[in-house]
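Sequence design from tokenized structure. All designs in this work follow the same two-part layout: the structure record, then the generated sequence. An example of the structure record is given first.
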């Protein structure tokens, strides 16, 4: 089936080019109370189109990138069978619109005995180059699948096997518990103690001889019960998603490598479960991280910053040009910013600005939060170098300040995606931040090549 997406407003200049019978068309839109306002959509029968195709009439407007993405998603949900799409009379970002349409086809019905529907294949008219968008769709859908998979099946080995299938061209080093012990990853080992499933540390490298090198760390807690600081039952409902940062990092690696972006990227993901048992760490225990700094663990449910600390310290030893980390780190981040906006922290304002510029292209929303120096005293410990929680207030900030202890003097970006990583409206996991990180790294590669 051929489907046209036709953008319309009150000053529609090219009606004759697209509409077969203007009088019938006007009567039709009046009957359906369609005024061409922003975000309005209406199915129009083929008889009214000059092309003879079924048409989705869409309101024109001054859309942001996020709104274009959401509009594409809404349009895609109206398509119920295989279709070839042509976009007409649209003055916005066509690439983002088509990506939103492609994202609308996602489903996760692996565990349903009766599948929701047959897969719908959406293609686009020949003049549109969607190769990049198809790679983005593949990466984001993989990320969402990994996050949505129940933790019973999402063993570390399952995750590792899926990473290898996604990134077949990348050298991936799988470091086991013995390696972690030999290399002083005391924080990762501490968090993992309570689980029967063994921890791993995964490292993947792309373009390691490039002039500019980036390290990307993703939080990989396969399930977070809270440990002995046990979450409530309701609080555990979504905790299979606590490895969203790790999945995101490998999704970004896939996009960077398959687009052959001229930048070096190393992905590092600590993989653990945070479970209660007789072997689990206790509130009040002290862990020694990779760089020798000690952390008093007052809340075992603040475990993400512990495993990230080890990973950041290890990444810093290679002296990359930039360190980024991405994690569903704190409930405080989505208390501050809601469920649709990610938090960004950085120790370099220029790099923070470049990251925010990338969001204008990606269609994802982030907002900067401060590394407020006065709050460092909130994570002071009486018996160790720091404690892993600064209390109830400013929780996203104090978590970021803890992480800052492990990046030395390197440029650093920290993304807390605890809110937007999952959404009830998008079948659980969203794949949030994959597109922005890809755009950010691509823009850094471009700027370095021009300098």
């Amino acid at each position: 089936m051929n489907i046209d997406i036709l953008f319309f407003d009150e000053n529609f200049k090219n009606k004759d080019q697209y509409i077969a019978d203007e009088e019938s068309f006007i009567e039709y839109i009046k009957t359906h109370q369609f005024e061409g306002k922003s975000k309005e959509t209406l199915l129009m029968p083929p008889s009214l189109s000059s092309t003879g195709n079924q048409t989705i009439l869409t309101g024109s407007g001054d859309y942001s990138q996020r709104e274009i993405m959401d509009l594409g998603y809404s349009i895609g949900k109206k398509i119920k069978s295989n279709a070839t799409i042509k976009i007409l009379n649209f003055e916005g970002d066509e690439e983002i619109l088509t990506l939103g349409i492609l994202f609308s086809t996602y489903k996760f019905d692996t565990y349903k005995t009766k599948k929701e529907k047959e897969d719908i294949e959406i293609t686009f008219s020949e003049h549109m180059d969607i190769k990049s968008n198809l790679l983005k769709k593949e990466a984001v859908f993989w990320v969402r699948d990994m996050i949505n998979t129940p933790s019973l099946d999402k063993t570390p080995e399952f995750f590792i096997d899926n990473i290898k299938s996604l990134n077949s061209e990348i050298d991936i080093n799988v470091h086991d518990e013995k390696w972690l012990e030999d290399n002083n990853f005391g924080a990762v080992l501490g968090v993992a103690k309570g689980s029967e499933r063994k921890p791993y540390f995964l490292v993947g490298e792309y373009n390691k001889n490039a002039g500019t090198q980036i390290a990307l760390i993703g939080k990989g807690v396969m399930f977070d019960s809270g440990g002995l600081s046990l979450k409530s039952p309701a609080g555990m409902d979504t905790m299979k998603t606590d490895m969203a940062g790790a999945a995101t990092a490998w999704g970004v690696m896939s996009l960077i490598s398959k687009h052959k972006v001229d930048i070096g990227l190393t992905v590092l993901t600590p993989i653990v479960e945070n479970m209660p048992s007789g072997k689990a760490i206790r509130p009040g225990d002290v862990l020694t991280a990779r760089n020798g700094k000690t952390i008093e663990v007052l809340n075992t449910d603040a475990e993400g910053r512990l495993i990230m600390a080890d990973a950041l310290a290890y990444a810093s030893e290679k002296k990359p040009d930039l360190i980024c980390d991405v994690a569903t780190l704190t409930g405080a981040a989505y208390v501050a910013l809601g469920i649709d906006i990610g938090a960004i922290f950085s120790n370099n304002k220029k790099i923070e600005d470049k990251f925010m510029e990338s969001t204008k292209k990606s269609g994802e929303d982030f907002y900067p939060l401060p590394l407020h120096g006065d709050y460092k005293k909130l994570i002071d410990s009486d018996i160790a170098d720091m404690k892993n929680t600064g209390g109830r207030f400013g929780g996203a900030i104090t978590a970021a300040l803890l992480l800052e202890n492990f990046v030395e003097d390197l440029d650093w970006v920290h993304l807390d995606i605890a809110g937007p990583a999952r959404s009830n409206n998008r079948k659980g996991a969203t794949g949030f931040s994959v597109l922005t990180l890809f755009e950010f790294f691509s823009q850094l590669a471009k700027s370095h090549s021009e300098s």
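The first helix runs from residue 15 to 18. We note this feature because it recurs in several other targets discussed in the main text.
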